[in-house]
Design a protein that fits this description.
By secondary structure, this protein is an alpha+beta fold. The protein has 2 domains: about 1-15 and about 160-295, Alpha-Beta Plaits; about 20-160, Alpha-Beta Plaits (2-Layer Sandwich), CATH 3.30.70.520. The chain contains 5 helices and 17 strands. The strands form 2 sheets. The protein has a 15-stranded mixed β-sheet that branches. Strands 13-14 form a two-stranded antiparallel ribbon. Strand 9 and strand 10 form a beta hairpin. Helix 1 (about 30-40) packs across helix 2 and helix 4 crosses helix 5 (about 250-265). The radius of gyration is 21 Å and the shape is elongated.
Length: about 300
């Protein structure tokens, strides 16, 4: 398959199941909402070594937030429910509660499963906390130095997909980076997905060919510096490669994000080929074929 002169390889992204919680952080303005969101989603690129995978989904309009203020949706992901709950408690308690003007609401109101995160964090109020209703939502008001911190009693979580990906190959580092940035910008307009890295310069494979203690190691087939030394998958004119990894609340959302990412990346001069990473079923059971994204 060829789009705008760029080869789209007939292959698939290998994705896996994960649990995802979606949180709405509101604040006085977008500056403070985003500052808190960035703190709460830090050190969360990959569960290979990070305690969770997380990222910013999208900005929320003031007319859709329960308190009528600026807001940001974030997503926190982990395959283990109990560990996901611990991450929500830690990240909200240590990154959002202390941040100026913030409040926290459930970002998945239709979810079937919930953690009572707000109920547990309300104990920070040391007995001075109060139950309140905000636009029909059961919340807790916790007295803090700047005023009151509002948090919804329960935060929803759902089954999601992690590891959707595209790999961009280009003639130069500049063109590869521009294409990856264009892809990320396009993904930011797709609701229900995050790019936890957001751009991966050091794409990995499962395990190691040499060091058996490693969970992951460099994906040598996509390293320009190793062409001629390994069984490379790079065309001869490729000098730089970037990967974009996508998590989402549904397979459909991840597929949509991958599609818009490809359509944006192929517009950048110097992009040669787009492919995807898969590992013979070692990573996950979901196969997202690139060519089928355009059926």
């Amino acid at each position: 398959m060829n789009i705008n002169g760029v080869v789209i390889e007939d292959t698939f992204a290998e994705a896996f199941d994960i649990k995802i919680s979606r949180i709405l952080i509101t604040a006085y303005d977008y500056e403070w909402a985003l500052a808190s969101a960035r703190e709460a989603t830090g050190f969360a690129t990959s569960i290979i070594m990070c305690p969770a995978e997380a990222g910013i989904d999208r900005l929320a309009k003031q007319n859709e937030t329960p308190d009528g203020r600026a807001g940001v949706y974030i997503m926190i992901c982990h395959p283990d429910e109990s560990k996901l709950e611990k991450q929500l408690l830690a990240r909200i308690g240590q990154c959002v509660l202390p941040a100026p003007t913030t409040a926290v609401f459930n970002g998945l109101p239709n979810a079937e499963n919930f953690f009572r995160i707000g109920y547990k964090i309300k104990f920070f109020g040391d007995g001075f906390e109060e139950e309140v209703e905000i636009n029909g939502r059961r919340c807790w008001k916790i007295p803090i130095m700047e005023g009151d911190f509002i948090i919804e009693d329960s935060i929803g979580y759902t089954d999601g997909i992690a590891g959707g990906n595209i790999i961009i190959m280009a003639e130069t580092q500049a063109s590869a980076l521009m294409a990856a940035k264009a892809a990320i910008d396009a993904i930011s307009n797709v609701e229900g997905v995050i790019t936890p890295f957001p751009i991966v310069a050091s794409g990995s494979k499962v395990g190691s060919n040499k060091y058996k203690f490693l969970k992951a190691s460099t994906n040598e087939k996509f390293c320009p510096g190793l062409v001629g030394k390994v069984d490379s998958e790079l065309p001869s004119n490729v000098r730089s490669v970037y990967e974009i990894v996508i998590n989402g609340i549904s397979l459909e959302a991840v597929k949509k994000a991958m599609k818009v990412a490809i359509l944006s990346a192929v517009k950048i001069p110097g992009v040669v080929k787009i492919t995807s990473a898969n590992f013979d079923g070692k990573l996950g059971k979901h196969k997202i074929w690139l060519n089928e994204l355009f059926d």
